Amino acid sequence: MSRERDGGGGGTERGTGGGAGAGTERGTGGGAGAGRVTAAAALAAPGSGPGAWEPATAHLSHRVPDLGALELLLAVARHGSLGAAAREVGITQPAASSRIRSMERQLGVALVDRSPRGSRLTDAGALVTDWARRIVESAEAFDAGVQALRGRRDSRLRVVASMTIAEYLLPGWLIALRAERPDTAVSLQAGNSAVVAERLLAGEADLGFVEGLSVPDGLDGTVVAHDRLAVVAAPSHPWARRRAPIDPAELAATPLVLREHGSGTRQVLDAALAGHGGLARPLLELASTTAVKAAAVSGAGPAVLSELAIAEELASRRLVAVPVAGVRLSRDLRAVWPTGHRPTGPARDLLTLTRARPGG
After folding, report:
1. pTM of the model
2. Rounded to an integer, what distance in angstroms lies between the CA atom of residue 210 and that of residue 249?
3. What is the separation of C-alpha 96 from the centre of its chain, rounded to a whole number of angstroms?
C-alpha cells in the first residue's frame, strides 16, 4: 500500500505492509524523531478518531481549525499552561479548554495532556503546532499585505462633481473630512453631470456628485441634498421690475443665459419646459455656473441658476429673483459611484459627512 499527502508541513508519508520501518516523515520544522513519526502516522491513519479522515473533496474549512484555535494552541506551547494561554488570547480558561477539545475532535488526535502541573503538548500536538506556526505566520503576512493595500487606498481620494456642488457644497464637506482624515490627499475635478459619469466609469474617480434628474446609466447613487433653480436678472432688466409671475410659455420662448447641454441645471430646465414648446435658442451658452452668473450680473440677459449659487448676489441686489408660475424647478443632488462598487474608506466617510452636513 502506498499513500502520499501534501500536508501543511510538506511531509510525505509512505508505508508498506512489511517493509523496514513503519513510515518516514519529512518536514521543514525539524528532524525526524521517532515521536514525530508516530504522530504523523496517527494523524494520517483512517479511523484514528472522530472526524480524523474526510474525503479529499471536503472543503478545507471543514477540516482545518480556524486561526483563533491555532493561535491558542501556539500560546499553550509557549506557556505550558492552558490558563496563561487563555489570558494571552483574551478568553476564559473554560472557553480555552473547550476550544482545544473541539480542535482535538476535529483533527481526531489528542493535542494537549492536562495535569495539575500544567498543560503539555502530546507528540501529535507538537507536530500540529509546527504546522500551525507556519499557517499563522502566513496569515500575519496576508494581514500585513491587506493593511498596506488599505493604507494605499486611504492615502488619497479622487472626487468629481458637477459645478454647483463642487463650488458651493463640497468645500464644506471636504473641510470636515480633513478633520477626520488629515493624512488623506483629496483631489477634486469639476465638470457637468455627463463628465462625472464618464470619469467614474473610467475608474478616474472614487466618488462623484451630480445635479441631474436621475442617476446616470452604469452608476448607483443616493440623494445627499436638495436644490431649487431660480430665474434671475440684473436690476436693469425689465423682468426685475415685473410683479406678475412669468408663465412657462414666456420663459421657454425667451433667449436665456444657460449652462451647456449635459449639465444638471440644463437637464432640469429642459425637462420642465418640454411641454411648453421647449427652450428657445440660448442667448449665451456657458460651461460654468460662475460664468453664467457673471453674464447675468453684467446685464447680458436673464439666467437660470441654483439658489445655492446666487445667495450673495440676491442679498446685495446685483441680481433679482424673477417669480415664475406653473413650472417645477427643484432637483435632487446625488452622490454616485459605479454600480456594484459601494464607496469604501475615505469615499465612504465623505458620503457619511454629506448626510450629516447636507447644507455644506
Report:
1. 0.59
2. 28
3. 35
